[in-house]
Amino acid sequence: VFVLDPQGGQPRLVFSDAGLDFLLMTSGERLTAAAGGRVFGLGVGRKNYQSGFPHFPAAVYELSTDGSNHARKIFDIEGENGTSNFRDLFASPSGSKIGHINSLGGKWYIILHDTATGKLLLKMDLTPIALDCFVREIGWMPDGKRLFFTLETGDVDMTSEASYARAGSYLMPDTGGAPVRVASDLTAHPKRSGYTPVADTPATLLGQLPDGRYLLSEFQWKQGPAVRAPAKATNFLYTVSSTTGSRKDFVANANVMLGSFHLSASGRLVSYVESHGEQRVGHDLIDNRTVHVLDLATGKDQNLFSFPAKLFNLPVTELIGWLDAK
């Protein structure tokens, strides 16, 4: 685990699994998280590791950030039939609670634990609300008491007709209770001149700013200047007022993928990764990526560093979040 001050300096190593009895796993499925000055990650026992990205048997650990390489096990993850569908590890703003999604018995669950004691706080079946949808993004709201998540539909042959009506963004207390849908006029794809929204793919809620604005991302297609020119998928990152519905655009990039969004606890900064697409280099597929930090108060977008990612190969580089409240 490396930390980097966006105001300057070089990445600094704060944790390594070298010499420990488990391997810290990263696979692009958000298996590590950072919040409240703390870092958490999924660890698989070295004696159980064969190859690839195994998630079971495994546990979630709190990882030290002082260079001591100390790790404290918080809880063992659940699995069945010798495997687990653990994904989307996320932490509350203070780091006092941690959550993830897991599929058990053919149902997807939101599972929350206390990070100090490992106590199970919530295990909620998402099936009644999600049907055949899957969770695209999930996290805590700034108050540390409510969760947000966005449901998205999958392949047509795996999605019931009723599921399409469930796609969208939801809020719910982290103590349980029925999720409440965010007003569709706030999270619907904005009308943009020359653009067409990607069908059946809702805008994704990424969190809420202290002033109440929602932060969202979306894809829309832009037709090329020639009649037969291919349409270009464009990523947008924007905010919407929860009271007036007014929108402010921050980032619009064509032919690149934006992802790994992390909103800081202060709600002022958002970090994300820009993926420039695959290129074959010898026998490898390389995706050149750039880590950004966007200041939502000023609109300044800063490129922190770039790196080549070798697809389908270890190690995997993953942006895991903010260590402090900037």
How would you sum up this structure, described in words?
It is a single chain. With 326 residues, the protein is mainly beta. It is built from 2 helices and 24 strands. The chain has helices at 127-130, 184-187, and strands at 2-3, 12-13, 22-24, 32-35, 38-45, 58-63, 71-76, 87-91, 97-104, 107-114, 120-125, 134-140, 146-152, 168-173, 180-181, 195-197, 204-208, 214-222, 232-240, 247-254, 257-263, 269-281, 284-295, 301-310. Strands 3, 4, 5, 6 and 7 form a 5-stranded antiparallel sheet that branches. Strands 16, 17, 18, 19 and 20 form a 5-stranded antiparallel sheet that branches. A 4-stranded antiparallel sheet has the order 8-9-10-11, with no helix packed on it. The chain is globular. It starts with a strand and ends in a 16-residue tail after the last strand. The model has no long low-confidence stretch (mean pLDDT 88).
What are the segments in which pLDDT stays under 50 over at least 5 consecutive residues? none
Computed Rg:
20 Å
Tertiary shape: globular
Structural class, by secondary structure, is mainly beta
Average predicted confidence as pLDDT: 88
Helix content: under 10%
Distance between the termini: 19 Å
Count of alpha/pi helices:
2
Q: Would you report the number of β strands?
A: 24
The percentage of residues in β strands lies in: over 45%
